[in-house]
Each structure stands twice: as structure tokens, then as C-alpha cells.
């Protein structure tokens, strides 16, 4: 994988020292390539330490490995999980300073294209690897008469064009697995022999447009995507990291294929930050060394089905040993961002969303102000061709206003959404289930869009249909409408149990604006629309 090296930085740790100690420390540093390789004289190299790590969401499966490392080194990893692309945005905006001691992403390739993010990283060391792959139902592989070791991206695209293959993939704008998949498909279908260029993307656009007609599931996280795939049962394949495909609950039903033209591989670098002191970076180095030890590398490959980066350790038995060409990452941010923009606004299926918004009397004042701001800010993220319906409710649904962001004049649609948002008023009781039923009746089935319902409420159901009535209504819906998930947002005094039930019933996911921000909850949901 082409990689821009990230420079090491080694400022001395803070604190006043005697001149003699300082001179000795400098002399010792002069004998090495980096002062980061030496422990702070005031720090016991085996002392207990907690490291706050901003990590890619799929690394939650590393918990047993990190528990063993804690026993071995005394270092406790305190992870905060997020999407890789979102983490890069935090680095670029300086939001990691003082909050995190290290970042552990699936890849730093996109990071290196963002100078403001790259300068926040002091060092990076790959820990393990996993290539992008496509997991296809065994029955579909048989029907298509595919030989797994010989399948190409062009064959996958042709199967989609013939109506013989559907799949799920995470959102490239928020998830590195989705972005890596997008690069792999674009490279394979364009025939690019080196890093993707704008010309390559333009050349592949007709084939990519056909290819993405087969995408039936999208998600901001690999875990939810696998769950949604298993729940629906009518999607043929998943595109994700090899380790995710082998490790989820559907592994017995999937044949994992790494297309012959090549793939992009995640190498999971553990990276220290320039904003931390020397002792912290030393602790990150100790953690890195232990994670790359043969014993831990064996545990990693056996428990997570990722590939070891230490040559002496063999990959787990479930991992295909056949070599595949490693596709390079785009060489410039302009190409990378242009590819994401093309996917969001031209290539993928358009989104269709109903926002069921609690504007009951309890939303009066600051809560309504926060809702209006969150929705107005969100319009900057709406895609071309997106259909947005605002359905404010109190004792009943107050109105239904639908707008489309038309490519010929997107501003008109966005302005109309903002205007309707600005007119929201708070009054009435809280008819959650009656309003959700109205949303499903409004939508109806539509196989050509990513369709979802977002429910935001600051309280519990107080009027209208009871939950049992809505449950019965939902279960009697046609299959296509039952596939429409509800994404509830916890806000104010809303009932977690009530909203969790709605998410689980409909195949959605609960988002928390009680401990986080309402803006952040709406933004996170975008990866699922």
C-alpha cells in the first residue's frame, strides 16, 4: 500500500529538572534515532497506565486481546469507537488534543491526504491487516457458477447488471471499509494500473452506476450492516473487510471472495499523537510492541481473523493464503473526495427519509431551539436526489411536508426544508405510535431508494395508539415496508426502553442525544440513510 510517511516528533516531557538530569537525558537521546524510544526517567516502564484511544468501531472485537495485554504490561486501553473517516475529521479539527492519547484506525491512508490531520500524528505502526472482500451466499455462488478464486470485480458488476446479485456496503463517507470497497471497485472496473486518477473515475462511472444499483443496504457501521443483512435474508452479499465477513453470524452461509484485480487492505496502525507528552508516547510504544509480539499476534489472528503483520506468525486457518494485488490508495485528496462525492450524489441509490419530530408542549423553549438548529445544520449534508419529509407531531401529526433536493437546483429544496423547520411550534401531547403509523402509510414500498424513518422525541407516548396496536400494525405490513427501519433518538425525557423496542422491532438502531448532542445524533444517522 502506498503510504506517506508520518514523521516522528519527540519533544521533552514537561516539568522542571536539574541541569545534570537534563544533560544526561539529552546525551542518551543523542545515541538513538528518536527520543521517543526512551522512557522518561521519572516513569517506571512497567507502571500501570491508562491510554485513551480513539478507535475504528470494528476494533471492539479486540477486547479479549487488550485484556491480555493489560495483564502483560499494566497498560489499560480505554477506547472510544467511531468511524475512521469521522476520526480523521476530529484530528483535522484539533478535537483530539487533550481528549485522546492515541488513535487506532483501520487505515491512515485518508489521514495522510489531510495535512491538518497528519500533523497531529507523531508515529504510526501497523498492528494487523484485513483486505476488503465480498461475502456471497453459497447458493448464489453456485447459481452464478463462480469459482471463488477467479472472480473479478467485472464479473460482480455484470451479475448486478443482470439482476442476479444484490449486496450491502457501509457508507464510504463515514466508514473506511466502505471507502476501501469503493476504491477497490473503482480501480477494478476502470482498469487502473496505478493510483486512481480523476480520469479513471470518469472512465468507470457508467459501470459504477450499474454496480451500485445492486446495493440494497447501507450503514455507518459494519456491525449493524451484518445484523441488518441477517434480519432481511433477501440480500445476496456483503462487501466488507475479510475479518468482518468471516466473523459475523452469517459466516457459515458466506463464501468470502477477494476479486482477482486486487483489493485495498486495512493495516490498523496504532498512532501516537504530537499533542501528548513523552511519557504517554512511551506507553503507546510499549503497547505497540506487545501487540506485535508473536504471542499476541497469534491471539489476534485466531480471535479476530485478521492477518498478522509479523512474518513468523501464520494466519488463522480460516484465512485464504492466496495472494492478491494490493490496490493503491488515491494519490491526492481531490481524487479521494471526488470519488466520495460521486458516490453520494450520483452513483448510489437516493435516500428517502421521514423525520417524525416531537413538537409537543414539552419541547417548548430550549429543546425546540436545539431541534431547529440541528435540522437546519443537517441540510448541509443532504445529497442530490434525496427526498426529505418533515412530519412534526404532538397529539397527532400536525402536517406532512415533502421536499426533494433536485440536482438542477438543490438550493431550492434545502431552503424549503429550512423554512419548514423554522416554522415548527411546540404544543400538544405526545402521540408517538400514531405518528409512526402515519409515517409508514406515507412511505409505502420503494425498491429504488434507501428508505428510513427518523423518530425524535423528548418524552414517552401519552396519547393516541398504544404500543401493542402499533406492533400489530407493523407486523401486518408487506415485507417491503417492514424492511423500512426506524432510527429513534433519545432526547430530553424520552423513555429508553420504549425507543429501544421500536428500534429492535423495525430493524433500526437507537441513537443517544441525552449523553451526546442532538446535532451529533442526526449526523450519525446519515451513515444509515
Task: Describe the structure in your own words.
The chain folds into three domains: 19-129 and 266-308, 3-Layer(aba) Sandwich (D-Maltodextrin-Binding Protein, domain 2); 130-265 and 323-343, Periplasmic binding protein-like II (D-Maltodextrin-Binding Protein, domain 2, 3-Layer(aba) Sandwich); 349-528, von Willebrand factor, type A domain (Rossmann fold), CATH 3.40.50. It has 529 residues and is of the alpha/beta class. 47% of the residues are buried. The protein has helices at 19-30, 63-73, 84-92, 109-112, 115-118, 138-144, 153-161, 176-190, 198-211, 222-232, 242-247, 278-291, 294-304, 333-347, 366-378, 410-422, 432-443, 467-475, 479-482, 496-506, 518-525; strands at 49-56, 75-82, 102-104, 121-126, 128-137, 167-170, 215-219, 237-241, 254-257, 265-266, 269-273, 307-308, 351-358, 387-393, 401-404, 450-457, 486-490, 511-512. Strands 5, 6, 7, 8, 9, 10 and 12 form a seven-stranded mixed sheet that branches. A six-stranded mixed sheet has the order 15-14-13-16-17-18, sandwiched between helices. Strands 2-1-3-11-4 form a five-stranded mixed sheet. The chain starts with 18 loop residues before the first helix and ends with a helix. The model is unreliable at 1-42 (pLDDT under 50). The longest helix is centred in the middle third of the chain and has 15 residues, at 176-190. It contains 21 helices and 18 strands.
Amino acid at each position: 500500500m502506498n503510504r506517506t510517511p508520518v514523521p516522528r516528533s519527540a519533544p521533552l516531557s514537561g516539568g522542571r529538572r536539574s541541569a545534570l538530569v537534563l544533560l544526561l537525558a539529552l546525551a542518551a537521546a543523542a545515541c538513538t534515532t528518536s527520543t521517543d524510544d526512551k522512557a522518561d526517567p521519572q516513569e517506571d516502564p512497567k507502571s500501570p497506565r491508562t491510554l485513551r484511544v480513539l478507535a475504528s468501531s470494528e476494533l471492539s472485537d479486540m477486547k479479549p486481546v487488550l485484556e491480555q495485554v493489560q495483564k502483560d504490561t499494566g497498560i489499560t486501553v480505554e477506547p472510544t469507537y467511531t468511524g475512521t473517516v469521522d476520526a480523521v475529521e476530529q484530528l483535522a479539527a484539533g478535537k483530539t488534543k487533550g481528549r485522546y492519547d492515541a488513535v487506532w484506525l483501520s487505515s491512515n491512508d485518508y489521514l495522510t491526504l489531510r495535512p491538518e490531520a497528519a500533523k497531529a500524528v507523531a508515529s504510526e505502526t501497523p498492528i494487523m491487516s484485513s483486505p476488503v472482500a465480498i461475502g456471497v451466499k453459497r447458493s448464489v455462488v453456485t447459481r452464478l457458477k463462480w469459482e471463488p478464486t477467479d472472480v473479478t470485480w467485472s464479473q460482480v458488476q455484470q451479475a448486478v447488471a443482470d439482476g442476479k446479485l444484490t449486496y450491502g456496503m457501509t457508507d464510504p463517507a463515514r466508514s473506511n471499509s466502505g471507502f476501501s470497497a469503493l476504491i477497490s471497485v473503482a480501480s477494478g472496473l476502470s482498469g487502473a494500473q496505478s493510483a486512481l486518477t480523476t480520469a479513471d473515475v470518469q472512465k468507470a462511472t457508467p459501470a459504477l452506476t450499474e454496480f451500485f444499483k445492486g446495493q440494497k443496504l447501507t450503514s455507518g457501521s459494519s456491525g449493524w450492516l451484518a445484523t441488518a443483512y441477517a434480519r432481511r435474508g433477501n440480500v445476496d452479499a456483503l462487501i466488507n473487510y475479510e475479518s468482518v465477513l468471516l466473523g459475523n453470524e452469517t459466516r457459515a452461509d458466506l463464501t468470502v471472495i477477494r476479486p482477482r484485480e486486487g483489493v485495498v487492505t486495512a493495516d490498523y496502525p496504532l498512532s501516537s499523537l504530537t499533542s501528548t507528552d513523552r511519557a504517554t508516547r512511551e506507553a503507546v510504544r510499549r503497547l505497540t510492541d506487545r501487540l506485535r509480539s508473536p504471542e499476541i499476534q497469534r491471539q489476534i489472528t485466531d480471535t479476530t481473523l485478521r492477518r498478522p503483520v509479523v512474518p513468523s506468525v501464520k494466519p488463522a486457518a480460516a484465512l485464504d493464503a492466496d495472494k492478491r494485488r494490493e490496490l493503491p490508495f488515491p494519490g491526492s485528496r481531490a481524487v479521494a473526495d471526488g470519488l466520495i462525492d460521486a458516490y453520494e450524489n450520483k452513483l448510489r441509490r437516493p435516500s428517502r427519509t421521514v423525520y417524525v419530530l416531537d413538537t409537543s408542549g414539552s419541547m417548548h423553549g430550549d429543546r425546540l431551539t436545539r431541534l431547529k438548529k440541528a435540522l437546519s445544520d443537517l441540510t448541509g449534508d443532504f445529497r442530490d436526489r434525496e427526498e426529505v419529509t418533515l412530519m412534526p407531531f404532538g397529539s397527532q401529526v400536525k402536517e406532512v411536508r415533502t421536499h426533494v433536493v433536485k440536482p438542477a437546483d438543490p438550493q431550492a429544496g434545502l431552503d424549503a426544508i429550512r423554512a419548514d423547520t423554522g416554522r415548527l411550534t411546540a404544543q400538544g401531547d405526545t402521540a408517538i405510535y400514531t405518528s409512526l403509523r402515519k409515517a409508514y402509510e406515507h412511505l409505502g414500498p420503494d425498491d429504488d431508494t434507501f428508505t428510513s424513518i427518523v423518530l425524535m422525541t423528548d418524552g414517552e407516548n401519552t396519547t393516541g395508539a398504544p404500543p401493542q396496536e402499533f406492533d400489530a400494525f407493523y407486523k401486518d405490513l408487506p415485507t417491503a415496508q417492514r424492511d423500512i427501519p426506524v432510527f429513534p433518538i433519545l432526547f430530553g425525557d424520552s423513555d429508553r426502553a420504549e425507543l429501544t423496542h421500536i428500534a429492535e422491532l423495525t430493524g433500526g438502531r437507537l441513537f443517544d442525544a441525552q449523553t451526546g448532542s442532538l446535532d451529533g445524533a442526526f449526523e450519525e444517522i446519515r451513515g444509515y440513510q
